[in-house]
Each structure stands twice: as C-alpha cells, then as structure tokens.
Amino acid sequence: MTHSHFRPGDQVVILKGVAGGELWGDAMTVVAPSWHTPTEEDGWRLRDPNGGQQTFVTAHPRYLVHLSRRCPDCLIYLRALEDYLIPKFTDAGTVIDCAWYFTTDKNQIVHIADRGNGQ
After folding, report:
1. 15, 13, 43: which is closest to 27 by C-alpha?
2. What does the alpha-carbon distance between residue 109 and residue 91 come to, in Å, rounded to a whole number?
3. Residue 93: which pLDDT band, with cuts at 50, 70 and 90?
4. Average of pLDDT values for 86-112?
C-alpha cells in the first residue's frame, strides 16, 4: 500500500497472527502523516485506542489494512494473506503471534523484513 492510500481518521489494523482460523491484529486510527525512520519513507502516525506507553506510534503504510472501509486493494491483500497463512496454522484453539513486528524506542513499528533499514 502507498502512503496516499490512507487518510487521517481511517480505522486500520496491523495484522499480527492467526487465531481461531482468522487473521488478527491491533486496530488503530490513522492520525497524521509522520516520517517512518526505519524505512526512511513517509509513514502514518497511529493512535492505539487501548493507550498505554505507546498510545501513538508510527508505521509504514504497507503494514496497514483498512478496517473502516472495504477498499479493493486492502481486500485483495487481506485475501492473499488469509489464503497463504491460515492453512499453515490449523489449530483453531491457539492464538499465534507471528512476531512480524517490533516497536523501537522511538515508537516506530517495524516489520522484521525492514529491520536494519535506516536504523
């Protein structure tokens, strides 16, 4: 997904794993454009409604999937992830965190494939 695909106020999810035969993740609200230091590209500042130490974080747009609207690009991406991942995790009673993301000390969410870029 590109930066322009999202807008402030959009409800998004950062997918983290599989639970009960479905993908799951952290739902957040897009707040404002923000530089994503680990990738050195435009990102989005997100608000986690659960608050805590990291109420506001920055993420790259390719980590995000729309929740608030059913756009074709996000649906295609979501379907591809479901088709690929769900068959790999067949134990419906287990919540599996795939550990794809970590958060830096500067509240930047980073996918494991991007670690080391710009850090």
Report:
1. 13
2. 28
3. confident
4. 88
Closest Cα to residue 48, out of 5, 77, 14? 14
Q: Which of 22-31, 48-57, 76-85 has the lowest mean pLDDT?
A: 48-57
Question: Residue 43 and residue 49: Cα distance in Å, rounded?
Answer: 19
Chain-wide mean pLDDT for the chain? Answer: 89
> What distance in Å separates the CA atoms of residue 45 and residue 28, rounded to the nearest whole number?
10
CB atoms within 10 A of CB 79: 10
| Span 28-48, average pLDDT | 95
Check pLDDT > 50 for residue 79: yes
Q: Are 1 and 62 in contact (CB under 8 A)?
A: yes
- Break the chain into its structural domains and give their ranges: 3-114
Sign of CA dihedral 3, 9, 15, 20: negative
Q: What's the rounded Cα separation, in Å, for the pair 52 and 82?
A: 30
